[in-house]
Specification:
mainly beta; 58 strands; disordered N terminus; about 40% strand; Immunoglobulin-like; single chain; 4-stranded antiparallel β-sheet; Methylamine Dehydrogenase, Chain H
Length: about 700
Amino acid sequence: MKRIASILLSLLCLSTLSAQTIGQWNVYPSYMNATQCVALGNVVYTLTDGNLFSYDTEDESVQLYNSMDHLNDVHISLIGASSEAKRVILVYDNCNIDLLDNEGNVRNISALKDKSISNKTINALTINGYTAYICTGFGFLTVDMKEGVIRNTYQIGIDTKGLLIKDGQPYLATSGTAVYTVKEDGNWQLASSWVTTTDVSKTDITSQTPSYAHAGGVDWYAEGFGGLVGYKDKDGQKEQVKGPIQPNSPRRDLFYRMNYVGDRLLVAGGINTPYAIYHPATAMIYENGSWSYLDEETPAKDYPKLNHWNTTHLTQDPNDPNHHFASPYRTGLYEYRNRKLVKIWNSDNSPLMQIGNLGLNYVSANAPTYDEEGNLWVLNSLTDTIIRVMQPNGKWQALYYEEIATTPTPDDYLFTTSGVKFLVNRRSTGRGFFGFYTNGTLGNVRDDHHVLRTDIVNQDGTSYDLSEFYCMTEDLDGRIWCGTIGGLFVINNPLEYFDDDFRFEQVKIARNDGSGLADYLLNGVSITCIAVDGGNRKWIGTQGNGLYLVSADGQEMLQHFLAEDTPLLSNNIQCLAIHPTTGVVMIGTDVGLCSYVSDATEAEDELSSDNIIAYPNPVTPDFTGLITIKGLTMDSEVKICSSTGQLVWSGVSNGGTCTWNGRNKQGKRVASGVYHVIANNAEGKKAVVTRIIVIK
């Protein structure tokens, strides 16, 4: 025991590593834009773009709420408080309902969400005593906030935008000027009982919506990106006395593209679409557990005539971590230093061309991407020459290829280790995967190899005419994994892409039913994004089918995550990024960001005892998760032996990580003691030993 105690002390510093365990989920809601607040006793609840936090005015503590902690859904539409019921009601966009009290207890009411009713759009919320009136496209419903049940649903065919109870009489506001009420002694459930009235105006109804809350002797206001702010009256004027209360978080729940640069996560929060979906130009950075944001004030102030929408890409200068470029949708190339906008590159000051000479709101500079030489590549879509390169000396090069001239939706570059470069052209004219090889002569396209493949032909000669192409990712073996609206395809050797007889591969999964037949992996599934982890496994995001994890060769389906049975926020995955040393998979969805701690990390080049870490260490009696061993080389063989040298367990690492469930080969939890970890590289040439203490 003395020996164990001394080892315990020497390993104490490693215990904090167990804060994130294999299989752990996390969510990252935005708490920046305060849109509504209500008070329940001394606690102020604040709605922030569909998310919720509370502030206790007595102890000044802040509580963050999310779908993994307290809440039963994502994206809250409206909140209201009943002092009589001592509860706050949360009404979600999908008609789910939560009731929350100041002790953190939650009562879920899913009946409206689960019921098949047309026109369930949530429009407004009114609290009257114990009762919450929820206005919808079909009429309204009442919720008893004390008992936690829906009392009545009124399907009266009125698109109700607001509701007022006056002297026991209901008044409904609509999208127009009309106001409805119930005939004397009329049945509220019957559409024929509701008639128009002039007794109450629409303004009388809608002005019932509270713009502030009172708690702790302070008036609290939700002031947008100014946060939650408290005021007191002084000589007839509002004087700020508290706040702003604004938890550090993503600026918005917009995650269109992400990539890691070291430990730093870069996020672009727009969408690349010709349709009228206008998201604010959001660019964010996540590092060391803290969020920061690129300057939004300067573009709006200095360039008021430009439409600052839909940031689709964010990239970092490889030689300057404080130098970034971002690409809002068709308003040029934005350059930042120390998070501040310093320049917008467009047709006035660069070779970037306008789309049809329509003005500076039509200068596309999509997909800014650095190559190994420090050249910044952009895509100047809907112009004659879409590939343009800004060199480190500030000079520009243009690469003209007839196949992709005037392509409207080029999405991304992929620079491969083979030297072949690819473009993903999403849809419409010129759609497909475009490969080009410059032969090291950036300014001379005459010796380049290049080909656009719009039709996908697989190894069996099966041809696919696809309407949309989404992503390309290179794995650790140099293979290119391609996502399309029609499934997953692989380029085994990029240098062969230019051959006349080139074929994509579709991974085949044997049915193992005696038929000798196989099925194509994820055939017909819309693949939106792909990331490769340290074990060369593929994380595959989809539109509507959640997230898949497949083995390095794609032959084995390891995991399938769906929002219905995991903390995944949505089955619509927009982007993925994997932290190289922790193995945390960041998952950007159409409703926000979540993460999953995987069991693979990037492998070390060599085995060294200085790099090997095992945690949790010690393993306490209440621990039931996986014990993690990190700092290994690719495919390291790992053996767990008792202090007497008896082999307890063996396995192989996923990249630089191996996990052990703390059990022996017979499946029984091992006894208390010191266990030796013996790791050999894939060639078996070097062994490294560390120790794990188990307390049973």
